[in-house]
Sequence to fold (200 residues):
Amino acid sequence: MSESVNLPRDHTQAILETTKRVGALLKEAGVPFALAGSVAAFAHGLPAGFRHDTDFCLRREDAAAAVAALAEGGITVVDAPEDWLIKGRDGDEEIDLILDLAGRPVAGELLQRADVRAVDSVRMPVLAPTDLMDSRLAALCEHYCDFAELLPMARMLRERIDWKLLDRRHRDQPLPDAFLYLLERLRVIEPRKQARHEHA
Fold:
């Protein structure tokens, strides 16, 4: 994934317009999905800090129906080199259709947990806060390690996130574990010492 950038206001609005367009096409086609990434964070109340694209999660078995719906709606769909991703383009805006999230195939349960929220006045399913943070922690690596981007999300959504679940999933990965430790030190979340002892 590309690094977060401060986009001009008109580009920010263009990403929102593309998000609304894709969401409407998928809903009209009856394709289950959930909005992900930085636009999902915006839908949960964070300030707009979009990447270069808008991200949607869907099940692999729904990929063909999603591609057909977008193509019929005038969106260009192209094969990505990754086998877990389908890419689209709406004018200058890029669209990612994600089939595997946080290292796991997108499943119906993930989509069922999604919150229906307004995205610039259009309501659509948005990844639940725990799943959204899970996906962002899983994306941390030596080439992408932006704690400054994750910290506002953790602060704003902390009461809606299952931190114990995320600790169990990510404690063996150094960068996600370091971020969770930072949240402890900043008193955003409760110390995990007891949880670690219980699962030792």
The beta strands are 34-36, 53-57, 76-79, 85-90, 93-98, 100-101, 104-105, 115-119, 122-126.
